[in-house]
Recover the amino acids of this structure.
């Protein structure tokens, strides 16, 4: 069987489905090949289930703290199997919504594995055993990524879990070692600790959350330590030895850590191997990422690649942005390439982290003379009202010739609901706005976002509260 579309997309995750929706909205006929459920890692094994379980931890904590508001509730307990049911309900509901909107855009979804055959042809080996040839003017590769692990830590689902297994756990261990103190590792560490698990974070680099502004990373580390999360940095794990109920994680030159579960969180590998690219001319780098230019074109005319499959930040919203760039390019429009050094980043651990643009360190390294404004949530009325005063907002601006703060280069936040507050800072950074321009905008009172306004205003030399 052979069918034709304007665009055929391999992979129905955030990159693939965003390309399908955007292309469909532009009137293109779209075929999308997905071997699992539409929604990809993000919807089924990543962003959505992870944030849903983090919310479970938040509710647990809030109930535990109700007494300080004069509300008596008995000591909360957690039934993780019920939490899993709720998580799945959210995932299913979002999947249903996505399926409906794909249908409304007349996207034809093929359930099977797609391989690129060259000359605008994609072969689909259907999940039902069928074989279909799809022909298209344009092909978008969006097969995403899979978890990776370290030697000595095979993911067996019993002792060693990766994100897929953590998000599917039916019950909680009493102790866990999280290997890797990056964004996902810190989210898991925070969630597990808040649910009563004794957590040890083992990070090879000198600090957790490498690449973050140092003040922000330090605030997270302080919070973790206050909550008895044992954060060990600069450690190399070499393997583990299971016993009857626990396993010992071996650390080079250091003490073993004995835990019930090991959570490996050391990054993800692009899934180019599923696409049959050998001999097609689509080039892949030594790590498996498909090579692309600024408009997501691969080394073969008529083939684009987006999302976790390419060597750009592995974030769902970066996949969305690349999907739009690729479709605009296919339409012959003049897309604005994604500015990867200014994308928004959010980490949903407690305290939350959100930032866009230069950190203080990276701005200095890039040669800027900078001025910095830092304000703490403990001085913010809304933060006191919600009883969540941990964290800060930090604005990094370029110092002008007159010595005054000029362009806003970076906005870095750590604290309550900062993932919902970043958008103003993101706009400021990406609009290349100056401190004077942003300082005149009003932040509603009382809100957490006042701290952003206050931090910018302070850079004019005339802050209101600090
Ligand atoms: P994927 O989502 O991996 O989708 C690729 C799809 O292609 C899959 O459905 C797969 O089945 C399909 N596929 C692969 N090969 C073939 C083939 N040959 N034929 C047919 N189908 C194929 N990002 C954020 O922005 N915010 C977050 O909070 C966040 N949290 C995360 C938490 C966790 C625990 C994890 C693991 C990831 C998180 N991410 C987050 C990252 C985010 O999930 C990914 O960046 C995003 O899913 C990448 O989208 P994608 O479309 O490129 O790939």
């Amino acid at each position: 069987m052979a069918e034709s579309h304007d665009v055929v997309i391999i992979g129905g995750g955030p990159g693939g489905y965003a390309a399908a929706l955007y292309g469909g909205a532009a009137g293109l006929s779209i075929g999308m090949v997905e071997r699992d459920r539409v929604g990809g890692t993000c919807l089924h094994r990543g962003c959505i289930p992870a944030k849903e379980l983090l919310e479970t931890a938040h509710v647990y904590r809030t109930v535990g703290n109700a007494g300080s508001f004069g509300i008596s509730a008995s000591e909360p307990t957690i039934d993780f199997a019920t939490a899993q049911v709720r998580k799945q309900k959210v995932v299913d509901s979002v999947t249903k919504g996505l399926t409906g909107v794909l249908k409304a855009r007349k996207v034809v979804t093929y359930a099977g594995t797609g391989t690129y055959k060259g000359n605008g042809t994609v072969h689909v080996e259907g999940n039902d055993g069928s074989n279909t040839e799809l022909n298209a003017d344009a092909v978008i590769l969006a097969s995403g990524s899979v978890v990776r692990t370290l030697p000595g830590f095979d993911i067996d689902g019993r002792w060693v879990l990766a994100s897929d297994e953590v998000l599917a756990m039916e019950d909680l261990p009493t102790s866990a070692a999280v290997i890797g103190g990056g964004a996902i590792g810190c989210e898991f560490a925070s969630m597990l600790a808040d649910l009563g698990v004794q957590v040890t974070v083992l990070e090879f680099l000198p600090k957790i959350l490498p690449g973050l502004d140092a003040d922000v990373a330090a605030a997270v580390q302080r919070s973790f330590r206050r909550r008895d999360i044992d954060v060990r940095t600069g450690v190399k794990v070499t393997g583990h030895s299971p016993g009857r109920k626990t396993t010992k994680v071996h650390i080079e030159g250091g003490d073993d850590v004995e835990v019930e579960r090991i959570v490996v969180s050391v990054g993800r590998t692009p899934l180019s191997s599923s696409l049959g690219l050998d001999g097609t001319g689509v080039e892949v780098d030594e790590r498996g990422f498909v090579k692309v230019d600024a408009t997501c074109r691969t080394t073969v005319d008529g083939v684009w690649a987006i999302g976790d499959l390419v060597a750009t930040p592995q974030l769902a919203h970066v996949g969305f942005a690349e999907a739009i760039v690729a479709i605009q390019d296919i339409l012959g429009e003049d897309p604005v390439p994604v500015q990867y050094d200014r994308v928004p980043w959010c980490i949903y651990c407690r305290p939350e982290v959100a930032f866009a643009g230069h950190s203080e360190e990276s701005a200095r390294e890039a040669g800027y003379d900078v001025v910095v404004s830092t304000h703490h949530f403990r001085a913010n009325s809304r933060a006191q009202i919600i009883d969540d005063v941990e964290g800060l907002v930090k604005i990094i601006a370029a110092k002008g010739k007159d010595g005054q703060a000029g362009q806003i280069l970076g906005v870095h936040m750590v604290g309550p609901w900062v993932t919902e507050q970043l958008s103003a800072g993101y706009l400021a950074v990406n609009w290349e706005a100056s401190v004077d321009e942003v300082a005149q905008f009003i932040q509603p009172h009382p809100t957490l976002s006042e701290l952003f306004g206050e931090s910018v205003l302070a850079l004019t030399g005339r802050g209101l509260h600090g």
